Every structure is written in C-alpha cells, then in structure tokens.
Amino acid sequence: MDSDDEYMSGLSSEGEDNILQDESDEEGSDGDDFGFEDDEEPEPDLGYSQKDSVKKEKKSFDINFKVYHPADIQTQQDELINEVNMILDIRKEDAAILLRHFRWNKERLIEDYMDRPNKVLESAGLGPSTSGLQLESIMGFTCDICYEDDGTQTFAMKCGHRYCVDCYKQYLGQKIIEEGEAARIQCPNDGCKRIMDSKSLDLLVTADLQQRYHEILTRTFVEDKDHLKWCPAPDCQNAIECGIKKKDLDKVVPTVACDCKHRFCFGCGIPDHQPAPCDLVKKWLKKCADDSETANWISANTKECPKCGSTIEKNGGCNHMTCRKCKNEFCWMCMGIWSEHGTSWYNCNRFEEKSGSEARDAQAKSRISLERYLHYYNRYANHELSAKLDKDLYQKTEKKMIQLQTASGMSWIEVQYLNTASQALQTCRQTLKWTYAFAFYLARNNLTIMFEDNQKDLEMAVEALSEMFEKPVTELADAKLKVDIMDKTSYCNKRRVILLADTADNLANGVWSWGISF
Amino acid sequence: MAAKRITREYAEISESPPSGINVSLDNDNVHKWNVVMAGPEGSPYAGGTFHLSLTLPPEYPFKAPVLSFKTRIYHPNVTNDEKGSMCIGILKSESWKPSSKILAVLLAVQDLLREPVPDDALEAQIADKFKNDRPGFERDAKDAVKRWAK
C-alpha cells in the first residue's frame, strides 16, 4: 500500500473532486485523486493487492503482445517506408505502394526487387514511366472520360494516361468514399494497372478526402499484417500485435488486453474466453445459438413417445395421448400403454406397471444428453449474465467507495480494495463462464475431476466474495470485513491463476481427452 | 458532365452498331438502354434473339453500368430466371474504369455467349454440364433458345 501511495502522489486530477469536498474534512487532498480509477493495472485480474510478486510474474497462460496507438501505427508505416526508400533509392510514395503490394513484408520486397526490379514494379502497379509534367493545361485536349474539350486542367500519373482533373476528382471520390478503396486505386484508364500514389492523390482531392484516404490506408496496414489486429472495442482505435500462429490455437488461448482495458482473444477476436480454446468456443456458441432456447422449451414442455421416441408437446387437457407418428396410445402421466389403463386413467393406478416404468427409463436416457447440456449451459449463462452486469457492479462500487469514504473517514486509497474486489469478481466470472463450456466437451476422467475441483474452488470463492461485496456500507466499514474482502480477493485471483495455468498446461501438452468432439 | 459522354457513346453505337447488336433508348431515357443481341453464329445461341437491359447509374462512368438479360437464357454465367443477372469481368467494380466503354461491354457479352466461363459461373449445374457434357449442354441451350428466344 505504501508504494501505491507514492505512485499516486505525483498525480492530480481536477473536476471530480467536488463530489467529496463537503463530506470529508481531513481527506480533501485524496479527493483530488479520485478521478484515477483509470490508472490501475492494464491487467484487471490482479489489481494492486498486497502480493506484488504474484502480480508481476508472467503466468504460463499469458502471451506476449504489444498495444499500438494510432500514432504508433503511423510511425511503423513511416519507418518501413523510409527504410525501403533509402535501401532501394525509390520515391517514398512508390516505396509505400511496393510495401503494400508485398503486404508489408520488407525482406521479401527487397529480395525480389534486387532480383527483378522491373517485374516487381510492374506487378505492384508501378509499370513503365513516362516523364513530364503531371498537372498541365493543354489546349484542345479532349478528356476520354467526359468527352469535354474546354481546356481545363489535366492530370496524368507516370503512366501518361491523361484525363481532366474534374474526372480524376470524381473517380477518386467514388473509389474512396463509395468503395472504401485506397491502396489499390488504379489509373482510370481501361486496363492500366498503375496504382494511384499518395502524392498524386494529395494534389488532386480535398483535405477531407485525403484524410479519409490515409485512414483507409492505415486500416489496410493493420489488416495486411498477420500479427496485427484492431481492438474490437467500440470507438477504440488501437491495434494489438501478437505473434501467435493460427496452427497453435488448439494449444494456446491468446488473451490480450488493450490499453482501453478491453480483454479479448487475439485468435478469434471475441472477449476473453480462457481457458477454452477458440474452436471449442466457436462450436459452443453455435450450439447455444442453435439449441438453447429450443432445448429449454423442449425440456419444459414435452415428453417423448415411449414407443418411437418422437418429441410430443401436450397442448390439450387430456392425458390420453396418441402419437402422430407411430399411432402409439399412451398415458401422459405415467407414460404407460393406454390400453392397460382401462377407464381409470386419471388415478393413474398403473404407476408400477412394467410398460410404464420401461418407457420412463427410456425417456430418462434420451433426456440425459439434453440435461447434461442444460446443466453446463445454465451455469455458463448465469456467469455470462453476471458478466453483463459488470458495468452496473462497477458503478455501484464507485458509489460505495464514496459512501465509505464519508462514513468511515477512510481515504481514497484505503477504499481501493473494493475496486480491486469488483475487478476480481468480473474477471473470475468471465473465466468461470468459459470453464462450463470447456467442461461440456470434456470426457470423464481424473484430469476432468481435478479440473472440476479447481472450478468448484474458484466458484465458491467468487460467490463468497460476491456476498461480502454486497454488504451494506455500514458493515463494509468494519476493519475485519475489509481484511476478509482483501484476503478473499487475493484468494479468488490465485484460484483463477491456478485453474488457468493448469488448464493451459494440459492444453499445451495435448493431454485433455474430449467426450464430445469440437 | 456525364450527359455528353453518354450521348456520344449512344450516338456512336447506334450509328455504326457492331454486327448482331442493336441499341435503343428506353422512353428517351439516356440512362436506360434496350439492347437487342443476336445469338452469335457458331454458338448454340445462334438464331436466337436476346433482349437485354442496360442501366447506367447516376455516377456513370465512374460506376459500372448494370446489365441483365430480359430474355431468359440457358448459360453458365447468367442466372436462369426472370432476373437474368449476369457475371462479367469488365463490369466488376475492381475492373471497371471510367474510360471503359459500353461498346466494350456489349462485345464482351457477345464473347461470353460464344465462350462461357464455367469457373465464374452463376448457375453451377449448367457450368457442370458445359464442362463435362458439352453435347448435352449445347442441346439444352438450343432447346432453351427455341423455347424462350425465338
């Protein structure tokens, strides 16, 4: 905690201190710091607890990645362009076109260019050049696009295909705005593969269009590079670099955390789904989308025909059922054959009758797989629901921390344990959610039992913490409860790390055995 | 701006039309052309008369025209329905250039009737037949001409 005090002391924030001003007499200075929730760890799973050693340690399920902000992405492109510009001694805008053509693989570009410069230039859309002025007013010139000959300004790229500037503008506008194209805009001449370079473009179009053009170029840069991906969070403009290979996705679950705090899987882009591997997640989500609603309804409203197994909905009051498919007549109550009932069906006094009990057994069996699925699904969905309430929870925490500061005279830093606890809850629930999808596919064996033990430990700890967390503010101020919450938070985080590390190791070593393939 | 271009193109094509092709305007609308194309000699479509509609978008020539068969046709690259949508390289947004001309489009359609491109098919079954059972394909295409294009 001391180090945290120091860490905060250099920071100050205006604006949000008003909330606290009247209420706290001695702690006014801490109130200034209140705006700094944003400044904790980029890794919310281990907020600043007492265990600094645990916090810094790299876990076996962590992967290396780097966050790029928009300016970094621009710099990266510029650096590559400058390098190629110097090494190959070509214009910068042409270097950019070459790099894009080679999907930013600088080494391959340089190698190929050294071997066959003309062929490389040709295929990148920088074919044979004619020299001469680019912008020019020519008397008696007829533009081959609009057929106008009123002698306006004309333009030609190095390929020499000359059109009037108005046509160029319209053409570029159509490509950039309507088609979202930038890197692969060709000369307007039918069949000419010459690529529009950024310098020519800047000569021709308005600043708005130039900006859009460069935005699209940056987008293609990230999309072209295999190791770069956009952060999928809304309004986030960062990109993440991670070296994970597609073929390793069955062994590693590459969760990355953007500086905007969004945690997502680099492999498939959906929010953090450790410990379950991408393929499993994909299959599970599909299954849920296809089955869950239907399965729930079927489970609640139907039974199977004891003879042919068709699923039957009882939509009328009578218990005398006739299967539409096999014409079997049976009793909805006991599932026995109707003819054995005689007329006394409503007592259903044939409960012990053999035909009925066999039918019930068969039905039970056919329901097992459905119920197994629903077991996992319900727990998965429950944790997902909790995850959706994350934001709510976080805001509640914030309010609670303010109340607590007022009620107990604790400082901002002293109530941070609630924030830490809230973050731990969110992260752990996210993990728990996916452990249920994971477990659905596991075969029964000792490893699975160990996995479920770990899962149980984490779940119990999370529920216990959740309960403490919900206590009214008056009780939260109690020093003992504070210690309990801090201990439980750190325990939850530890259990999560253990579960994830264990699962990740087994995944990397390929020792899980699956009961259902995915 | 585009009016001059369209008018010139229309004038050129209607004054000296390429063999087997005739164009007219739909209700004097320069953005909507009616095209009548004779099935090229030597192809299974010979003897047939095909009506096509050519629509020039407001953005023309910066955006490609849209072409469809009004006469139903049995061909791998034209949908075998009342829409008659077609897949032809020159009209794709990545290959269309403002300096591409309608004449070239019409000639490309003629070429497509002479030489279907089964790898770019809209009708997979017809493409299969074209590749694996050429006599059967030609018979079916000729039958279709008799049925729809006479």
Automatic annotation (TrEMBL), chain A:
Enzyme class: transferase
Signal peptide start and end residues: none
Enzyme Commission number(s) of this protein: 2.3.2.31
Start and end residues of each stretch annotated as Disordered: 1-54
Positions with biased composition (Acidic residues): 14-44
GO process annotations (BP): protein ubiquitination
Every RING-type domain range: 139-352, 143-190
Keywords attached to this entry: Metal-binding, Repeat, Transferase, Ubl conjugation pathway, Zinc, Zinc-finger
Enzymatic reactions: [E2 ubiquitin-conjugating enzyme]-S-ubiquitinyl-L-cysteine + [acceptor protein]-L-lysine = [E2 ubiquitin-conjugating enzyme]-L-cysteine + [acceptor protein]-N(6)-ubiquitinyl-L-lysine
Annotated Pfam families: Ariadne, IBR, IBR_1, UBA_ARI1, zf-C3HC4
One Gene Ontology MF term: ubiquitin protein ligase activity
InterPro entries to which the protein is assigned, alphabetical: Ariadne, ARIH1-like_UBL, E3_UB_ligase_RBR, IBR_dom, TRIAD_supradom, Znf_C3HC4_RING-type, Znf_RING, Znf_RING/FYVE/PHD
Name of the molecule in the record: RBR-type E3 ubiquitin transferase
Lineage: Eukaryota, Fungi, Dikarya, Ascomycota, Pezizomycotina
TrEMBL record, chain B:
EC number: 2.3.2.23
InterPro entries: Ub_conjugating_enzyme (IPR050113), UBC (IPR000608), UBQ-conjugating_enzyme/RWD (IPR016135)
Key words, A-Z: ATP-binding, Nucleotide-binding, Transferase, Ubl conjugation pathway
Source species: Calycina marina
SUPFAM superfamilies in the cross-refs: UBC-like
GO MF: ATP binding; ubiquitin conjugating enzyme activity
PANTHER family, alphabetized: UBIQUITIN-CONJUGATING ENZYME E2
Source organism superkingdom: Eukaryota
Domain UBC core: 1-150
Protein's name according to its UniProt entry: E2 ubiquitin-conjugating enzyme
